[in-house]
Design goal:
Chain B: This is DUF4810 domain-containing protein. Chain B: Keywords: Signal. Chain B: InterPro entries: UCP020555_TPR-like (IPR014508). The structure holds two protein chains of two kinds. By secondary structure, chain A is α/β, with parallel strands linked by helices. Chain A is built from nine helices and six strands, in the order H-H-E-E-H-H-E-H-H-H-E-E-E-H-H. Chain A has a domain of 137 residues: Rossmann fold (3-Layer(aba) Sandwich). In chain A, strands 1, 2, 3, 4, 5 and 6 form a six-stranded mixed sheet that branches. Chain B is mainly α. In chain B, 62% of the residues lie in helices and 0% in strands. In chain B, helix 4 packs antiparallel against helix 5. Chain B is globular. Chain B starts with a helix and ends in an 8-residue tail after the last helix. Classes of the chains: A alpha/beta, B mainly alpha.
C-alpha cells in the first residue's frame, strides 16, 4: 500500500523530466505568456566589413516574420522616424530601453538582429561565402528577452552534392553569383532567417495572423 | 538563366516550410526594398512597386502588413500629405496593431494651423 502510494509522485517526477512534445533546450513560457501580435524590426548591428550588409539583411526580415503570422512594422518608415528621433545609429538603438521603443511605436515586441559575419573569401582554387547572424526578440512591454536564435552558413562551391537537396539548391544560387565575382549573400540570409523563425522547437511559434496560432504547442 | 536560382530556392524553402503562410501577396516587395537600400535615390521606383502590389489587391485582404503604411510614407516624403494620410488610415483599418503609429503619422500629415491674421 505504502509502495503504491509512492507511485503517483514518482510518475509525476518522471513525466516532469520528459514532458511530451517539449522543446529541447528552449523555454517558450515568456513568449507564450506575452503572445506578441506585432514586431518592430530595428536597424541591424553590423559587425562585418561590408557596409551595405545591414541594409540588405534588414530587407530580408519582414517577409518571413509576417508569413509566420505577426504584424511587422514597415521597416523603411521605422528607419526614417528613428533617424528623425536621433536613433539613426543601430548600436545605440540596440542599447536603448526596449520599453521606450515599445511605447513609441506601439510594438508588442522588438527584434534585434546582428550580423557577425557577411564575408566572401576569394582564393585561386575556391571562394567561400560566409554569414553569421544573431536574432533576439525582446518584449516592448517589460523589456525582457522572449526568444533568441543564432544562424551561421558557410558555402564553398563544390561540384559534389552535399546530400541535402535544400543546401544544394542554395549552393547553386550562391555559386551562380560567385561566377560573376559579386557574391549574392541574399539566398544565404533568406535561408538563415527561414531556419531561425521556422525550425521546430527552436523558431517562433505562429503569430496571431496565422491559422496555426495556438495550435502549434507540440512544435514550439 | 538569371531567374532560376530564386525560383529553385523558393521551391526548396517552400517544401521545407510548415503551412503557416496566411496567403499574403508580397508581389516582389522584398526585392524592391533591397533595391532601395542599395540605391537610396530610388524612392520613386520603390513607391511605384508598392503601388502595383496595392492596385492588384483592391479589397485589401491580401495586402501584407506595412505596405499601405510604407506607400503612405513615400507619398509623405514627396509632400503629398493628404494622400499619405489616406494610406495611413488604410493601414490602421487593415492592421489595427499599427494604430498608435498610424495615428501619429496621420497627425503629421495635417496642415499646420493658420497664423492668426
Amino acid at each position: 500500500m505504502n509502495r503504491l502510494a509512492l507511485l503517483p509522485p514518482l510518475l509525476a517526477l518522471l513525466a516532469g523530466c520528459v514532458p511530451p512534445g517539449a522543446a529541447p533546450g528552449r523555454d517558450y513560457a515568456k513568449l507564450r505568456g506575452e503572445d506578441p501580435a506585432s514586431i518592430l524590426v530595428v536597424p541591424v548591428v553590423n559587425r562585418s566589413v561590408d557596409v551595405a550588409a545591414s541594409g540588405l539583411f534588414l530587407s530580408t526580415l519582414t517577409v518571413p516574420l509576417a508569413d509566420r503570422g505577426y504584424y511587422v512594422f514597415p521597416v523603411y518608415l521605422v528607419k526614417g522616424l528613428m533617424e528623425e528621433d536621433g536613433l539613426g545609429d543601430a548600436g545605440l538603438v540596440h542599447q536603448a530601453d526596449p520599453r521606450r521603443l515599445g511605447q513609441l511605436f506601439g510594438a508588442d515586441a522588438i527584434l534585434y538582429a546582428t550580423i557577425n559575419r557577411w564575408d566572401a573569401k576569394y582564393a585561386v582554387l575556391s571562394t567561400s561565402v560566409e554569414v553569421d547572424f544573431d536574432y533576439v526578440l525582446k518584449s516592448g512591454r517589460t523589456g525582457e528577452e522572449l526568444w533568441k536564435a543564432h544562424q551561421a552558413y558557410t558555402y564553398v562551391p563544390s561540384s559534389q552534392s552535399t546530400g541535402n537537396a535544400v543546401a544544394d539548391l542554395i549552393g547553386m544560387a550562391v555559386a551562380a553569383s560567385i561566377v560573376k565575382a559579386a557574391p549574392d549573400f541574399m539566398p544565404l540570409a533568406r535561408s538563415a532567417n527561414h531556419k531561425a523563425f521556422h525550425l521546430q522547437h527552436q523558431g517562433l511559434p505562429a503569430g496571431p495572423h496565422s491559422p496555426q496560432h495556438g495550435l502549434d504547442k507540440g512544435e514550439f | 538563366m538569371r531567374a532560376w536560382p530564386p525560383l529553385v530556392l523558393a521551391l526548396a524553402l517552400g517544401c521545407a516550410a510548415p503551412a503557416t503562410c496566411p496567403g499574403l501577396d508580397w508581389g516582389g516587395y522584398e526585392d524592391s526594398l533591397r533595391r532601395l537600400v542599395a540605391n537610396p535615390g530610388g524612392l520613386e521606383a520603390y513607391g511605384a512597386s508598392l503601388r502595383r502590389i496595392l492596385d492588384r489587391n483592391p479589397d485589401g485582404t491580401r495586402v501584407p502588413p506595412g505596405l499601405y503604411a510604407e506607400y503612405g510614407y513615400v507619398l509623405f516624403l514627396s509632400g503629398r500629405k493628404e494622400e499619405a494620410a489616406g494610406f495611413f488610415t488604410k493601414e490602421k483599418t487593415r492592421w489595427p496593431e499599427a494604430s498608435l503609429l498610424m495615428d501619429r503619422m496621420i497627425r503629421a500629415c495635417a496642415p499646420p494651423p493658420k497664423e492668426p491674421s
